[in-house]
Amino acid sequence: MISQHYKEMCATPSVIRSLAVYAAERGKEIGYENVFDYSLGNPSVPVPQAFNDAIRHLLDTKTSAQAHGYSPNPGNPEVRRIVADSLNRRFGMDYKMEHIFMTSAAASAIAHALRCVTAPGDEVLTFAPFFPEYVPYINQSGAVLKVVPADTESFQINFTAFEEMLNPKVQAVLINTPNNPSGIAYSSETLKKLADVLYAKQEEYGHEIFLLSDEPYREIVFAGADAPFVSKFYDNTLCCYSWSKSLSIPGERIGYVAVNPKAKDAEMIVPMCVQISRGIGHNCPASIIQQAVGECIDLTSDLGVYETNMNILYKELTELGFSVVKPGGTFYIFPKALEEDAVAFCEKAKKYDLILVPSDSFGVKGYFRMAYCIDTEKVERSLPALREFVTKEYR
Amino acid sequence: MISQHYKEMCATPSVIRSLAVYAAERGKEIGYENVFDYSLGNPSVPVPQAFNDAIRHLLDTKTSAQAHGYSPNPGNPEVRRIVADSLNRRFGMDYKMEHIFMTSAAASAIAHALRCVTAPGDEVLTFAPFFPEYVPYINQSGAVLKVVPADTESFQINFTAFEEMLNPKVQAVLINTPNNPSGIAYSSETLKKLADVLYAKQEEYGHEIFLLSDEPYREIVFAGADAPFVSKFYDNTLCCYSWSKSLSIPGERIGYVAVNPKAKDAEMIVPMCVQISRGIGHNCPASIIQQAVGECIDLTSDLGVYETNMNILYKELTELGFSVVKPGGTFYIFPKALEEDAVAFCEKAKKYDLILVPSDSFGVKGYFRMAYCIDTEKVERSLPALREFVTKEYR
Description:
2 copies of one chain form a homodimer. The first copy, chain A, is an alpha/beta fold. Chain A has 2 domains: 137 residues, Alpha-Beta Complex (Aspartate Aminotransferase, domain 1); 247 residues, Type I PLP-dependent aspartate aminotransferase-like (Major domain) (Aspartate Aminotransferase, domain 2, 3-Layer(aba) Sandwich), CATH 3.40.640. In chain A, α9 links the parallel β5 and β6. The N and C termini of chain A lie far apart (57 Å).
């Protein structure tokens, strides 16, 4: 019999996707180049040439079985070693191959990490504003997502609210830094304080609380930002990474879980991920893609355009009187709307062909997200529309 | 806290994998070419040149976003259309793009299809002998796998046992034809009878019973075999396909669910798969791999070697007095062991460097599986070892 649960889920469309569809439709009327589409977080810079060259080289030099054969369940061993070595070199960690589990990007990394450290009914805390896909990611695993209200002053962590919500049922805390949608990176001070709270609560509750660190924007950090490596601060950290944004290959679905070697049962987590894979039908990301990222381990796309775009928008938004915290990374900015109802605000913006995402689905009201992973030329062309929108609607 | 459930699962090693590890270890002692390793179902023929050429061509001609960007959630639309058209052309079906959901091979196809048509606690029936991974695939979704005893005369379906086990809690039946491990393809007569039983039981229970058809060996069918397309026989069929074996690309993790257009709520199933993806962390197979299989839709590797190997082994096994049903496809053969305890039989075979898999984990006792996806030359070299084993141990 058809599952009523999943059938009903189909009836709730994603706000972001609906806006992207609207932008595409509007583009058919006036030319997509005239729609200032800030809806989707889709990398706009090309893949590095070296990535495509790596695939060509693998096809030219490997046997069919080496290129396209089964990976062992935790992933290609050589690639796992390369990932561990790179993290150790860059962040002074002590990963071994045995701590790395290759996944189909961050969604899959979170799916595995989450099941390693929670059982159905356990609570997982995350901090607003947050990526809305965390709701199905977590609730469909059987755990229960609870959202800690935002610290809207800085978009760091609201520790007062956090400590109130901590309780013995909390088995994991999920963070995302640099953050979608705020663009903010958690500072060393924030991460130190977070670790202190978690260490104290582990002691108090008599069980581990795992920190799941979702890091797809780790390589997109702007000048002056304090954006340290999360796993340095807290032993029971599972780092969930994706190359989607750093190499502009979101469709290739490639990432990993890196288990902090100091975590409780660290040597068990990757074998547990293998068991979890069997139940949720993964069994490794694509072999040739694993090997190609291994060949490009310390490369990124030319990510500088995101900082350029951020600076243009931050300056303009500030001058227009928006209250906005300057992003430390990502390709998002998250200003306060000019009226309480962000949905109404974003609806009005459509009249000026500005596609902005209201903050409600990110777990905070009265803000909006702009995804500036678009050409700088288009960002600049959008400024007059932004000025006109603000002037006509709110002056 | 670390999940005890998954931690405990790690303690149970796979019989097949343990044998493969033994074979590799033994290979280090005597040279792997001297180990007659029939343990693993890993394609031995190379990928078609056209597949690698398709990847090169995509890299040369597509933009970065076209090659490596996000697919829409159900998969690349053009590839879904190509899959539907190919199935229609080959099997006289009426699929549209909307009925095709791209997956990370058959494991992922089954993970999605299963969750579409069962809820936790529902029963899923499969027929012995069966692929042992069905146990975690199904039980970890919350549904409950029940195994119908084998018809060891023909390895078609034991309908008497099947009808006894059917009850209103059964929401899905999972079949695999051509079959791992028996190598048998279900005949038109079997599939017709299966459909008749299911239609009658749907009527009796007042709910649909879905047929999940796991078809990774669909393109490996031998001369004279009656191996029809399952979805022709029964409306509520979800076809779960993988290119792992047909194109020798098991590491690239690519397949699909094809929803019979006549199935109940056929137009809902793919959107439901999208929702399921969010919870289990999939979100499409790799973009470049999707597009490459689209370019090679009606190609296969040169699969003839499997039939050659089967004929050599079937002749030898029969001459040695084994009771064995001649395979209609796959790269497996499933003879009766020469003693009741198949585990003891396969243990003795190791003395002759024959690596055979006892049937116990496939849900039937007293048989063994040989995976003959190895070079024909090695199959021929294994025959004296097989003869010596039988003569010394059982004559």
